[in-house]
């Protein structure tokens, strides 16, 4: 666990956020000691959002906490893969994304947790507005119906506010491929929501018809 003395772990040092030379983009190389210091700061800055992403993907707080821990341990072990000029936040999301997909494929579950944060930006997309309310009812069912990779792209872009380049890095694909994937994901969500709306309308019509029949029988 981070903050413990277990092998491979590291504690979040007081004042880590203020360390110079540690930003969104890694600007140099390091030895193991400097890597540990950098990753302590990365943990302090991004632990919350990585946990939130895994929580939305898995809908299990305890599992999300465990996999957040796992993601940072993997990041510590793979620090030498982060090259000069790389986006550290996107690199971290890529690790968390793989950890989540590995668990989903192993356990065969795809569930989402309601999101209640406020939309960012002056012109939020329809998908962002939809995801900024509780993921329940038709929206939750629609999200569960679209392909796994498309769900992840929507969460990363619309909820976690990754840029196009960050999304591409997190998913391990090109910028062009990431844009195409997000376009398909948005279209899939619209279609799934339309299907859910039709199903709800049909169910409501059936309830109304049943109510009318009951009233007729009661006369």
Features:
65% helix; mainly alpha; 219 residues; 2 domains; elongated; Rna Polymerase Sigma Factor, Chain: A
Explain what this protein looks like in three dimensions.
The protein has 219 residues and is mostly helical. The chain has eight helices and no strands. Helix 5 packs across helix 8 (175-218) and helix 6 packs across helix 8. The model is unreliable at 1-28, 109-124 and 129-134 (pLDDT under 50).
Q: How would you summarize the topology of this molecule?
A:
Layout: H1 32-58, H2 61-77, H3 88-107, H4 126-131, H5 138-145, H6 148-159, H7 164-171, H8 175-218
Helix pairs in contact: 1-2, 1-3, 2-3, 3-7, 5-8, 6-8, 7-8
Task: Report the CATH C-level class of the largest domain.
Answer: Mainly Alpha
Rough outline: elongated
Helix content: 55-70%
Give, in order, the helices and strands: HHHHHHHH
């Amino acid at each position: 666990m981070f903050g413990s003395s277990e092998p491979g772990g590291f504690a979040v040092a007081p004042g880590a956020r203020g360390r110079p030379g540690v930003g969104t983009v890694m600007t140099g190389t390091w030895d193991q000691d400097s890597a540990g210091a950098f990753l302590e700061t990365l943990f302090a800055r991004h632990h919350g959002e990585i946990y939130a992403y895994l929580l939305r993907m898995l809908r299990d707080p305890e599992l999300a906490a465990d996999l957040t821990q796992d993601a940072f341990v993997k990041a510590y072990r793979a620090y030498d893969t982060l090259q000069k000029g790389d986006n550290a936040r996107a690199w971290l999301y890529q690790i968390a994304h793989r950890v989540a997909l590995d668990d989903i494929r192993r356990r065969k579950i795809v569930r989402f947790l309601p999101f209640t944060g406020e939309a960012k930006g002056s012109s939020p997309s329809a998908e962002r507005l939809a995801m900024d309310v509780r993921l329940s009812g038709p929206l939750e069912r629609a999200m569960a119906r679209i392909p796994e990779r498309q769900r992840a792209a929507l969460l990363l872009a619309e909820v976690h506010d990754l840029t196009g380049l960050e999304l591409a890095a997190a998913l391990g694909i090109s910028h062009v491929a990431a844009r195409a994937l997000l376009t398909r994901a948005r279209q899939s969500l619209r279609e799934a929501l339309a299907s859910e709306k039709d199903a709800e309308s049909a169910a409501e019509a059936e309830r109304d018809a049943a109510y009318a029949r009951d009233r007729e029988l009661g006369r």
